[in-house]
C-alpha cells in the first residue's frame, strides 16, 4: 500500500471509518481528538505487534492471516533477524518495522491504528502507555499488568489520549465459552450454583521470563490461573465478594520468585461459589464446569489454543456442538470493529483491572492466611 | 443355629477362631480378655445392625447376603414392623432382635460378635461405647462421631473393653480405590503432586436428620465431603499440615443448622496440595483425580454405591479396568477377618478420629476466616 499522500490518506481513512460506523457518532469533520480508527483505505484496521515471541509467532501472526477487519501491518522487535523474517513472511514494509529504540516514532505511522502489546507482563504498562501517547489504540495481552495500580495508570493514559484499550481475553470471543455464558445466564440448567475451574501446566525452561517476578508479576496464577478466574467472572457476570487462597511450593529453586501451585475459592453475590486452581507444576487440569440446580455444563479442555471440548449432564440441552473458530482472530477482529465503529470493547482495560484486583486478593489471602473481603 | 450349650459353644467358637487365625497369636487357653471373635461354629462372625434405615435396608442387608465371613444374625430397631419384616426376610431369630430399651442385653447374646452402628452420626458414640461395654466388637458408620473428642472416647471405650473398633470406610476396600492408592504410592505416573476431590448431592427432604446439627454434627462435609477428605488421605498416606476452607450458604432456612457448600484446600507433608469440595446444594461432583509428574488417574464417579468409573491420562498404564465388588460386603468381611484372626483393622477408630480432626480444622477455618495449621 502507498502512503505517499498523507493528507488524502488521512481523509479517506476517516471517511472509511465513518462509513463503516454508519456515520452514527457525529463529529465527522470535528478537529477534536476522536476514538475513531485511522483505518486505511482498504477499510481494515492496521495492527503492529510489539514483541515477536512465541505467542506472536505461533498464534497471532497466523490468526492475522484469517482476520477480516484487522490487518498485520507493523512489528516492533529488538531482534533484526526476526524483523527480516517477518518482513519477508508477512510482507511487512520496512517503514512499519520498529525496534525498542525508535518505538515512539510509530506515532507518525498512520498505517498503524492499533498496537498489540505481546511483551512479558511487566512491560505491558510502559508499552501500553507509550502506545497511547503515540495516538494508537491498544490491545494488551493478559494479564494486563503486574498490579491493579499499573492497570489504573494504563486505563488513565488511554483515556487521556482518547484511545481505546482492550485486553487479549480470547476466550470471551470463542463460541463455546459464549454458549456456556448463555447457559449460565439463561439458567438453561437452572440457577448456577458452583463453578469448578482450573488451568495449569508443567513449565519447562527454568530461565524463561515467566519465572522472573519483575517480568511476570507472579507465576501460574498470573499466566494461566487468570483463565479460571475469568471463567468464574464471565459465567456469573459478577465480581467476587470474598476470596480464600492457599499456595504450595514444591520446588523453591525453580519457583523462587513466582508461585507454583495455588488453589482458591470465591463467593459471588448471587450465591455462586467456586473452586479454582492453577499450577506450573504438572499437566492435566484445563477445564471449567458450571454446576446448576438441574444439571451441569463445561469445557474440558477449556483454555487451550486448540478448540474447547464441551461436556454436560445433558449434551442435547447444552447445545455445545459448535464449530470452532480461531479465538485470536475473533478477538482481534472484535477490537478492530470497536475501533472502526467507535464502539466500546467488551474486554476493556477495566476488565483487566478487575482480574488484577482479584489476583491481588488471592496473593493477599496466601500472604496473610486470611479470607479477603472484596465487598 | 442352636445356642443350647453355651460352654461347648464358647469353646468351639474360640477353637474356630484360633484355627482361622492359624493359632498364631498365642493365649489360646488364656482366661484374660481376648480380642478374638466369639465366632460361632460355622466359622463366621455374627453381626447385629443397629438402626434399620436406608443404608441398612438397601445396602448392608443385601451386602450381608454376599459376605463370606460376616453373617447377619441380629438387629436393633425401635420399629416393631421393621423387626417383623427383617426377621422374615433374613431369617433373624427373635432372640437376636433388640430395641433401644433392651439394647444392652445383647451382651448376653453370644451369636453376636460385632455390632454395626448405622444410626445418625450423633448417636454413634453412645451406641459404640455401649456395644463395647456389652463385649462386642464395633463397626461404626462414617463419620465416626460429631467431634474428635467423642472419637477419642469411643476409642478409649473399645480399648478398655478389649474390643475392636473399625469405621465403615467402604471405599478403602474397593479394588478401584485400592489400585489408585497403588498408582499414587508406587508413583506409576511419577510423584503425586495434586489431588482434586469432591462429593456432593442435592439433598431432598428438609426434615431429615442429616439437616439437624445434633444428629448429623454438620452437613455435606460430615456426610459426603468426608469421602473427598478420605481420598486425599489414603492417596497420600499422610495427614494434612494446613487447611484453608470457605463455606457458602444459599438456603439459610434449609441449611439453618448445617453446612451447605464447602470448598477446602489442604497441604500434605510430601508437598501434595489438594482442592476439595462438598455440597448438599446440587448434583454433579463425585470424583477424585490424582495429578502426578507424568500423568494423572482418578475415578468419576468415585464414591457412589455403583461401581467407580476409572479415568486416566494413560488407561493402559493405569490398569484400572477392574471387576467391581460389593464395597459393603468387602468392608464387612475385612472386619470379620480382623475379628476372627485377631488382627488390627486397616480402618480403626484412629482412622475415623483423623478425619474428624481434619473436619474440625475445616470448620475452624470457615469460622475464623484463617488457615488452620495441623503441623
UniProtKB/TrEMBL annotation, chains A, B:
GO terms for molecular function: glucose-fructose oxidoreductase activity; nucleotide binding. It comes from the Bacteria. Residues 46-169 form the Gfo/Idh/MocA-like oxidoreductase N-terminal domain. Signal peptide: none annotated. Pfam families: GFO_IDH_MocA, GFO_IDH_MocA_C, GFO_IDH_MocA_C3. It is an enzyme of class 1 (oxidoreductase). Residues 325-374 form the Gfo/Idh/MocA-like oxidoreductase C-terminal domain. Keywords: Oxidoreductase. Residues 178-284 form the GFO/IDH/MocA-like oxidoreductase domain. InterPro entries: Gfo/Idh/MocA-like_OxRdtase_C, Gfo/Idh/MocA-like_OxRdtase_N, Gfo/Idh/MocA_domain, GFO_IDH_MocA-like_dom, Glc-Fru_OxRdtase_bac, NAD(P)-bd_dom_sf, TAT_signal. The keyword Oxidoreductase applies. Its EC number is 1.1.99.28. PROSITE patterns: TAT. The keyword Oxidoreductase applies. Belongs to the Gfo/Idh/MocA family. This is Glucose--fructose oxidoreductase. It comes from Rubripirellula amarantea.
Amino acid at each position: 500500500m502507498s502512503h505517499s499522500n498523507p493528507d488524502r490518506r488521512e481523509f479517506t481513512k476517516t471517511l472509511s471509518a465513518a462509513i463503516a460506523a454508519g456515520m452514527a457518532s457525529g463529529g465527522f469533520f470535528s478537529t477534536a481528538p476522536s476514538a475513531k480508527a485511522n483505518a486505511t483505505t482498504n477499510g481494515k484496521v492496521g495492527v503492529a505487534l510489539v514483541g515477536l515471541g512465541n505467542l506472536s509467532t505461533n498464534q497471532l501472526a497466523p490468526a492475522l492471516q484469517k482476520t477480516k477487519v484487522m490487518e498485520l501491518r507493523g512489528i516492533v522487535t529488538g531482534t533484526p533477524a526476526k524483523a527480516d523474517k517477518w518482513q519477508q513472511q508477512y510482507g511487512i514494509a520496512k517503514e512499519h518495522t520498529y525496534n525498542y529504540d525508535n518505538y515512539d516514532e510509530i506515532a507518525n505511522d498512520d498505517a498503524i491504528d492499533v498496537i498489540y502489546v505481546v511483551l512479558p507482563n511487566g512491560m505491558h504498562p510502559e508499552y501500553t502507555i507509550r502506545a497511547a501517547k503515540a495516538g494508537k489504540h491498544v490491545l494488551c495481552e493478559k494479564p494486563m499488568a503486574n498490579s491493579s495500580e499499573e492497570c489504573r495508570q494504563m486505563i488513565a493514559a488511554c483515556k487521556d489520549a482518547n484511545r481505546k484499550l482492550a485486553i487479549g481475553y480470547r476466550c470471551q470471543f470463542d463460541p463455546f465459552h459464549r454458549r456456556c455464558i448463555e447457559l449460565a445466564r439463561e439458567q438453561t440448567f437452572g440457577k448456577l450454583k458452583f463453578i469448578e475451574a482450573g488451568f495449569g501446566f508443567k513449565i519447562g525452561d527454568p530461565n524463561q521470563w515467566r519465572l522472573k517476578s519483575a517480568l511476570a508479576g507472579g507465576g501460574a496464577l498470573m499466566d494461566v490461573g487468570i483463565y479460571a478466574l475469568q471463567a468464574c467472572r464471565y459465567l456469573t457476570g459478577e465480581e467476587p465478594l470474598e476470596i480464600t487462597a492457599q499456595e504450595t511450593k514444591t520446588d523453591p529453586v525453580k519457583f523462587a520468585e513466582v508461585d507454583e501451585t495455588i488453589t482458591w475459592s470465591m463467593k459471588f453475590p448471587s450465591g455462586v461459589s467456586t473452586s479454582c486452581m492453577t499450577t506450573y507444576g504438572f499437566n492435566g487440569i484445563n477445564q471449567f464446569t458450571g454446576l446448576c440446580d438441574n444439571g451441569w455444563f463445561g469445557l474440558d479442555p477449556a483454555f487451550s489454543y486448540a478448540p474447547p471440548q464441551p461436556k454436560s449432564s445433558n449434551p442435547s440441552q447444552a447445545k455445545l456442538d459448535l464449530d470452532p473458530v480461531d479465538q485470536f482472530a475473533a478477538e482481534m477482529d472484535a477490537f478492530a470493529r470497536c475501533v472502526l465503529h467507535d464502539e466500546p470493547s467488551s474486554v476493556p482495560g477495566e476488565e483487566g483491572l478487575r482480574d488484577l484486583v482479584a489476583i491481588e486478593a488471592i496473593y493477599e489471602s496466601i500472604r496473610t492466611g486470611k479470607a479477603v473481603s472484596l465487598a
